[in-house]
Design brief:
The structure holds two protein chains of two kinds. By secondary structure, chain A is mostly helical. Chain A is 42% helix and 3% strand. Chain A is built from 16 helices and five strands. Chain A is globular. By secondary structure, chain B is mostly helical. Chain B is globular and about 60 Å long. The chains are: A mainly alpha, B mainly alpha. At the A-B interface, α9 of A face α3, α5 and α6 of B.
Chain lengths: 412, 235
C-alpha cells in the first residue's frame, strides 16, 4: 500500500514537472514569437501569398536581386538541422553555421546586439512553426557582387560585432528602448545614410537617408527638423509606433510596413521604452534648411499657384491652415515630414496618396487619394512648395522637374 | 424672475453642450466608409461609378464577393497594378471586406452607352460570342456565367455593364497573356486563352453598347448553373 502510494505520488510529481516544463517551453515560444515580430523577420522571410517564414521573397538591391531564405524547421529546405548555437552565431556574427558569409541585406549589423537569451527564444519559436519544404532560390547578383568574398570588405568597413551594452548613466527604460531600436528593430537599416557600398557608418547612425531602390526618404531620427522626436510628446510617439497614426502625423511608405508587420505587436512597456529612447537621441540643434535652388520669382509664382491647388484639392481634409483633423487627417502645418530638406516624401504622397497601415489600434485607417492623374508636374510642384512654406513651415520650394522624376518611382 | 434666470441658465448649458458636441465632430473626419474610401475616388468616382478615364472600372453594384477577391488579389500582388498594390498593401481583411461591401451597396445610375467606334459586322460578331459563344472553339457565351442580363451573380461573378470597351479589352488581354490570374480553376484564363485579338475587340465593343437593364443588380447565388468550375465562384 505504502509503496503503491509513493509510486502514485512519484508519477504525479513527474506529471507536474512535465506540465511545468511544457508551460515553460510554451512561454519561451510565445516570447520568441514576440521577439521575432520585434525583429520584423516576417517582412523579408515570408513571400507575398507564401507560407510563413518559407522565404523566397525577392529583395531588389542596387547590386541585383537577393531571395530571402527559408527559416522554417524543414531539415532540408529550412533550418531544421540548426542548433540554438547556430542561430545565435548567425544573428551575432553574420555567418552561416558552416562559416559562409551572409549578405548584409540580412540586418546582422543590428542583430549582433541581440542577447543570447532572446536569440534562443526566437530559435524555440522558429522550431515550433510548420516546416515547409521549399528550396531556397539562388540570388541573382551582378558581377562582381556575386562574389561573397566582397562581404569581407563590407564587414571591415561597417560591421562591429557585439551584444548591446547598456549605458549605466541612462534609465533602464532608455536602455530597453535602445536595445530594441538598435538591435531587433534594426531601424538604422533605413534611417541612416546608405553609401555607395551599401553600408551604414556608425557616425552617421540614425541620420536619415534615401532608401535605395524604393525612392522614399527615411528621415533622420536625430534631427528635430526631420523625424527627430525631441519636441513630440511620449504619447504621440507611442501612438505613431503602435497604431500608425498620431496627432503629429501618420506613417506611410516603408514605415507603414514596419508598423504593420512589427511595431503594432509590441507591448505598451516596450513601445514606451522605444519612445523614451527615440526622444532622447534627438539633437536640439540642427543645420538650418538649405536655400531653395529655385529663383525667387519662380518660387513665388509656384507658391501662389500652389495655394489655388491646395484650396481646391487639399483643404477639405487638411484644413485651410494646414491644421488637419488629427490623427486621421494629419496636420501639414508644423509637420516635419513636409518641411524637411528632402522633398521626396511630400511629393510622393501627393502623387501616390496612401493608406496608413491597418493596425489593432486603428483597423480602418483613412486614406489619401493619389493625385498623379489629376495634377500636372507644375501643379504638384506648386502645391508641395506651398505646403512646405505656408503657415510658418520652414521648407523650401520644389521644381516641376523633381515632381516629374518621382512619377516613375517604384510603388512596391 | 427666478424662472427667467433658470431658463437663461438652461439655455447657456444647452448652448455649451451643443458647442462641445459640434467641436468634437468638427475635429474628426466623418466616421463613415465614404470618408474612408476617398483614396479610391479620383480613379473610380465618388460612388464607384467610374470616371472619364476609360481604363478605370466602375465598382458600384458589383457583387461584394467579386470586389473583395480583387482587393485581396491587388493586396498580394497576384493582380498587378502598382498604384492599387501600393494602396492596399497593409490593410487587413475585414477592412477590405467592408470596402467591397460599401461599393457593392452603391447604386449610381449606369452610364448611357457611348456610340461604338467599330463596324456593325464587328458588333454582330461580338454579340454572337457574348450571347452564344463558339462551341467549335471551346468558347462559352459570356451570358452563361455573367447572366442573361450581364448583371453578374452573387457572390463572385461581376456584371459586365457600365464598363468601357478599352477596360474590358485590356482585362481580356491580361487574362490571355497570363498577367491577370485568379484562384484555380481559373475559368477566365481558360476562356480568354481561346479568344483571338479580333474576338476581344468585338466582345469588348458589343458589351460597351449594352443599355442599362431595368434591374442592374447581380442575381442571387445559384440562380443558374455554371458551364464549368470556377475558383472564384465555389458551388
Amino acid at each position: 500500500m505504502g509503496s503503491k502510494l509513493s509510486i502514485t505520488l512519484l508519477a504525479l510529481a513527474a506529471l507536474t514537472t512535465a506540465a511545468q516544463a511544457q508551460d515553460k517551453s510554451s512561454d519561451i515560444i510565445a516570447r520568441g514569437e514576440y521577439l521575432a515580430r520585434a525583429g520584423d523577420c516576417t517582412a523579408c522571410h515570408t513571400a507575398p501569398e507564401g507560407r510563413l517564414f518559407a522565404g523566397g521573397r525577392a529583395m531588389p538591391t542596387p547590386f541585383g536581386t537577393i531571395y530571402t531564405s527559408n527559416i522554417t524547421p524543414d531539415p532540408d529546405a529550412g533550418i531544421g538541422k540548426w542548433s540554438a548555437d547556430d542561430l545565435y552565431r548567425t544573428m551575432h556574427s553574420g555567418r552561416f553555421p558552416d562559416g559562409g558569409l551572409i549578405y548584409p541585406a540580412m540586418p546582422f549589423a543590428s542583430y549582433t546586439k541581440v542577447t543570447r537569451a532572446d536569440s534562443d527564444a526566437i530559435f524555440a519559436y522558429l522550431r515550433s512553426i510548420a516546416p515547409v519544404n521549399q528550396k531556397n532560390r539562388p540570388h541573382e547578383l551582378r558581377f562582381p557582387y556575386d562574389n561573397r568574398q566582397l562581404i569581407l570588405g563590407w564587414r571591415t568597413l561597417f560591421f562591429s560585432e557585439g551584444e548591446f551594452k547598456p549605458d549605466p548613466t541612462k534609465s533602464a527604460e532608455w536602455n530597453r528602448g535602445a536595445y530594441l531600436v538598435e538591435g531587433l528593430g534594426h531601424c538604422g537599416m533605413c534611417h541612416s545614410p546608405i553609401n555607395a557600398l551599401g553600408g551604414t557608418s556608425q557616425s552617421d547612425a540614425f541620420k536619415g537617408g534615401l532608401i535605395p531602390m524604393q525612392n522614399w526618404y527615411a528621415p533622420s531620427l536625430t534631427s528635430n527638423r526631420e523625424a527627430g522626436l525631441g519636441d513630440w510628446s511620449i504619447k504621440d510617439i507611442t501612438d505613431l509606433l503602435q497604431t500608425g497614426v498620431s496627432a503629429r502625423g501618420v506613417v506611410y511608405g516603408p514605415m507603414a510596413e514596419v508598423v504593420h508587420n512589427s511595431l503594432q505587436y509590441l507591448n505598451d512597456e516596450d513601445t514606451r521604452a522605444m519612445a523614451v529612447y527615440l526622444k532622447g537621441i534627438a539633437e536640439g540643434s540642427s543645420p538650418p534648411p538649405a536655400n531653395s535652388a529655385l529663383p525667387t520669382t519662380e518660387s513665388s509664382l509656384l507658391i501662389s499657384l500652389g495655394k489655388t491647388v491646395y484650396d481646391k484639392n487639399c483643404a477639405s481634409c487638411h484644413g485651410t491652415q494646414g491644421e488637419g483633423k488629427p490623427p486621421h487627417w494629419p496636420p501639414l502645418a508644423n509637420n516635419q515630414s513636409i518641411e524637411m530638406q528632402s522633398a521626396v516624401n511630400p511629393i510622393r504622397m501627393v502623387l501616390n496618396g496612401g493608406y496608413p497601415p491597418g493596425t489593432r489600434g486603428n483597423p480602418r485607417p483613412y486614406g489619401m487619394p493619389p493625385f498623379a492623374g489629376l495634377l500636372s508636374d507644375n501643379e504638384v510642384a506648386a502645391v508641395v512648395s506651398y505646403i512646405r512654406t505656408a503657415w510658418g513651415n520652414r521648407g523650401t520650394p520644389v521644381s516641376a522637374r523633381e515632381a516629374n522624376e518621382l512619377r516613375s518611382a517604384p510603388l512596391n | 424672475m427666478f424662472a427667467r434666470v433658470a431658463a437663461s441658465a438652461a439655455v447657456i448649458v444647452t448652448l455649451s453642450a451643443f458647442d462641445g458636441a459640434a467641436a468634437q465632430t468638427a475635429s474628426q473626419p466623418p466616421d463613415t466608409m465614404a470618408a474612408r474610401v476617398e483614396a479610391c475616388t479620383p480613379c473610380h468616382g465618388n460612388k464607384g461609378e467610374g470616371t472619364s478615364d476609360v481604363y478605370f472600372p466602375r465598382l458600384a453594384g458589383k457583387p461584394a464577393g467579386y470586389l473583395y477577391n480583387q482587393l485581396l488579389a491587388f493586396r498580394s500582388g497576384r493582380r498587378k497594378y502598382p498604384p492599387m498594390n501600393y494602396l492596399l498593401e497593409f490593410l487587413p481583411d475585414p477592412y477590405l471586406e467592408a470596402m467591397a461591401e460599401y461599393f457593392a451597396s452603391e447604386h449610381p445610375p449606369l452610364p448611357q452607352p457611348a456610340p461604338s467606334e467599330v463596324s456593325k459586322d464587328v458588333l454582330a460578331q461580338g454579340e454572337q460570342l457574348a450571347t452564344s459563344g463558339d462551341a467549335a472553339r471551346n468558347i462559352p457565351a459570356c451570358v452563361s456565367c455573367h447572366g442573361p442580363g450581364l448583371t453578374g451573380m452573387q457572390p463572385g461573378i461581376p456584371g459586365l455593364l457600365g464598363l468601357r470597351a478599352a477596360y474590358v479589352s485590356a482585362q481580356l488581354g491580361a487574362w490571355r497573356y497570363g498577367t491577370r490570374t485568379a484562384k484555380s480553376p481559373d475559368c477566365m484564363q481558360l476562356v480568354a486563352g481561346h479568344l483571338t485579338e479580333a474576338d476581344v475587340t468585338a466582345v469588348a465593343a458589343w458589351l460597351a453598347t449594352r443599355p442599362a437593364p431595368a434591374n442592374p443588380a447581380p442575381v442571387p447565388k445559384g440562380t443558374y448553373a455554371l458551364p464549368f468550375g470556377c475558383g472564384s465562384q465555389p458551388n
